[in-house]
Design brief:
Shape: rod-shaped
CATH architecture of the largest domain: Orthogonal Bundle
CATH topology of the largest domain: Hypothetical protein af1432
CATH class of the largest domain: Mainly Alpha
Radius of gyration: 51 Å
Number of domains: 3
Number of strands: 4
Largest sheet: 2 strands, antiparallel
Structural class: mainly alpha
Length: 730
């Protein structure tokens, strides 16, 4: 275990270093895993929160209220036909205004009252006219004081100047005309209009002054006798409004809803809402709600990953890949989906599911797809159920169909499955509505579903390739490409070091079976095993499995040089791997398959030559490492040592073989070579069983024929030399 600096703020030296903090300080690998998990958790939570509360300029939505000035021009992303409440209310208001006011029938009591009042007024005027003691000014003032008539001075003087006979004729004519007028319908506010008809009713037998006097008397006594019926009028208005049919408005794609700088009207608000482009102004409650949702989704996601793969956080690359893929698709969904009604059906959510499923883990891909589907529903303002099911099932189907993407045609198969499930879902959700099965919209959706499958599989293939080239991800396509026997390095290994090539094939079979047994990446393990000893092609005859002439070149050189040559096959292999652009994941197998073990045979030989272990530089006999840090490279280390030891010791039974393998595994475990590898004791048991199953079919007991005994002893001696030099077993 290497010493790593403590994180800032954790000064726990001395007696304070106890319990949990002590375990952290002594396990930097665990600390780094927790740091990766924390960073991933914060990034995903921040991304989800930002996607829920940030409005992108290109997203089409606008946050305005009636009376605001529009901050930007808004174009309709699609065609929509909706019932316009604003236009319907305007039409209803017009219908109400078209209803004429309703009045009650003329009230006869008003006419009788005015006629009685007319007699009272005439009687008072008679008294004034006949008062011998009043002056002319007083009489005029008294007549002007009559409230009903509102006489002017000239009109009052005219009445006073009339003779008695003329006055009698005037009063008689006034009573007659008032009776006629007050029988008519006189509405409130129409009194003046009625007064203008009085001159036409006055008898032509009267002279000008007499007619003026009649008009003065009658005009003052005309009042309204027909009154407005508010209740009946409102009832008629409401009946007219209810009779108005709803007004529908159609907005076509590309139509301008608002222009930058326009004042927002109610009709604009309604149109934006119908198109799903209207967003209400956020309050602190909205931000708090978004934060809680982001924390819940993020927490579920991280908890599931940790439960599913406890070793997931131990490596940076898978965490980085999952983060960049998930964040990238959240951003793409936020930008693309609110812009058009068809885009949700075209969005390649299946690409995310296939990438995560093939590069990381299928169950994790399913959970990521479910979370993004929920976010898409939020982006679309509470999308319909069928869109969300369409996206989720399409994504999961693509991930299942692609699997680990071990063949190029897997992408074609995945695309076809996505198309099939998309079309079936579209048909399923629209069968209950026969009216929409034959329209153009259904054809557009079917086309979108087919394009979705084609684009998703193609996009996944492109990203899959780029991830392998840019980030050095060991994709299955790359691994299959370099696993072919005609690869230049494997061809050189076969021609220059045939013994090593044969050993490589056996070890790869052992490692692959063990990887399958514990659920590790079997393809990566097999291909990494092919190349783990590729450095031996530089000096093949210094490794005993490639020496066919019976001479050992190490007999002529000192143990330090021999150890240096043996150890050099690791850095030589790394150089060759980089020269031929092998993936970093495969190069790790070359670096780590010996870990930091010792070349035991030459170390002990050096000790014997010095007769004093303290005089021997042990570091010169150790491999540079590092120790295996993944399950796959740890499996290779155990397979490499187990194969060499079993080949050297030639067990005669399965129990004996199992005991040998267990001893090899135990030595590697006790020497600390597996400290950084996320393997459990149960994993080691399964690995041991898998090794024994493969080796039993190779090193099985057989009948010895006459003359083979001496050859057998020579073979055993040679195999022991192989085990002690090329594959030291401790």
């Amino acid at each position: 275990m290497t010493n790593a600096p403590l994180p800032p703020g954790l000064d726990i030296a001395g007696p304070r270093r106890t319990g949990f903090l002590q375990r952290w300080s002594r396990d930097p690998a665990r600390w780094r895993a927790r740091v990766r998990m924390t960073i991933f958790t914060l990034v995903i939570a921040a991304t989800i929160f930002a996607s829920l509360v940030v409005d992108l300029p290109g997203a089409g939505a606008v946050r305005v209220q009636e009376g605001d000035i529009s901050p930007k021009t808004v174009i309709s992303p699609g065609t929509v036909n909706y019932k316009s409440e604003v236009l319907t209310q305007e039409a209803q208001e017009q219908a109400r205004k078209s209803v004429q006011p309703i009045y009650n029938v003329p009230e006869s009591r008003v006419a009788r009252r005015q006629l009685a009042r007319a007699h009272e007024v005439v009687a008072f005027i008679d008294l004034v006219r006949n008062d011998p003691y009043a002056t002319g000014e007083q009489k005029i003032a008294w007549l002007q004081a009559i409230p009903d008539l509102s006489l002017s001075e000239e009109e009052a003087q005219n009445i006073l100047d009339l003779s008695d006979d003329a006055w009698q004729a005037v009063t008689k004519e006034a009573f007659r005309i008032l009776s006629i007028v007050m029988r008519r319908e006189i509405r409130e506010g129409e009194e003046d209009q009625t007064r203008r008809t009085v001159p036409a009713l006055i008898s032509l037998d009267l002279n000008e002054k007499e007619a003026d006097a009649v008009q003065s008397l009658v005009n003052g006594l005309i009042v309204a006798n027909t009154f407005y019926n508010e209740e009946e009028t409102k009832l008629a208005q409401e009946q007219a409004a209810q009779a108005v049919q709803p007004v529908y408005r159609t907005i076509t794609a590309g139509e301008t809803i608002l222009r930058a700088g326009d004042r927002v009207e109610p009709l604009d608000i309604e149109a934006l809402d119908a198109l799903g482009l209207l967003k209400s102004r956020r309050t602190w409650r909205d931000y708090l709600s978004a934060l809680i949702l982001a924390l819940i989704l993020d927490g579920v996601f991280v908890a599931f990953i940790t439960f599913r793969r406890r070793d997931f956080w131990s490596e940076s690359l898978p965490v980085f890949l999952l983060g960049i893929i998930f964040v990238g698709f959240i951003a793409a969904a936020k930008v693309m989906l609110p812009m058009h009604t068809l885009l949700p059906y075209l969005f390649p959510l299946a690409s995310m599911a296939m990438l995560i499923g093939s590069l990381i883990d299928l169950p994790i891909a399913a959970v990521a797809t479910a979370i993004l589907t929920l976010l898409i529903g939020e982006f679309l303002g509470g999308a319909e159920f069928d869109i969300l099911v369409y996206l989720f099932l399409g994504g999961v189907t693509g991930a299942l169909a692609l699997g680990k993407a071990e063949r190029l045609n897997s992408f074609v198969r995945a695309g076809l499955w996505i198309i099939a499930i998309n079309l079936l879902l579209l048909l399923t959700f629209r069968l209950p509505h026969p009216a929409i099965l034959d329209n153009q919209g259904m054809m557009e959706l079917a086309f979108a579903g087919a394009v979705n499958g084609i684009f998703a599989s193609s996009f996944t293939l492109v990203i899959y390739y780029l991830l392998g080239q840019v980030f050095g991800v060991s994709t299955s396509l790359q691994l299959l490409e370099i696993s072919r026997p005609n690869h230049p390095l494997l061809r050189q290994l076969l021609l220059k070091a045939p013994g090593t090539y044969h050993h490589t094939l056996i070890v790869s079979n052992m490692a692959e079976e063990a990887a399958v047994a514990i659920g590790a990446d079997s393809l990566l393990t097999r291909v990494g095993s092919y190349y783990h000893d590729i450095g031996k092609i530089i000096r093949p005859y210094f490794f005993i499995e490639n020496n066919t002439d019976g001479e050992n070149p190490h007999d002529r050189i000192d143990p330090y040089t021999s150890a240096r040559i043996i150890i050099s096959h690791v850095p030589d292999g790394v150089d060759l791997a980089r020269k031929y652009r092998l993936p970093p994941g495969v190069i790790d197998f070359i670096k780590e398959h010996h870990g930091t073990t010792r070349v035991e045979y030459f170390y002990h030989k050096a000790v014997q030559m010095q007769d004093d272990p303290s005089k021997v530089d042990e570091a010169a006999f150790r491999y540079p490492g590092p120790k295996p840090h993944t399950r796959e490279t740890a499996i290779l280390m155990l397979a490499d040592s187990s194969e060499a030891t079993v080949r050297a010791m030639r067990p005669q039974s399965r129990e004996e073989m199992l005991e040998i393998i267990r001893s090899v595994v135990s030595r590697r475990l006790m020497s600390g070579q597996l400290d950084n590898a996320p393997l459990t004791l149960q994993d080691l048991t399964r690995i041991t069983e898998a090794f024994a199953q493969v080796l039993q079919g190779i090193h099985h007991p057989r009948v010895k024929y006459p003359g083979e005994e001496s050859k057998s002893k020579q073979g055993e001696k040679a195999d022991r030399q192989v085990a002690s030099t090329a594959k030291p077993a401790g």
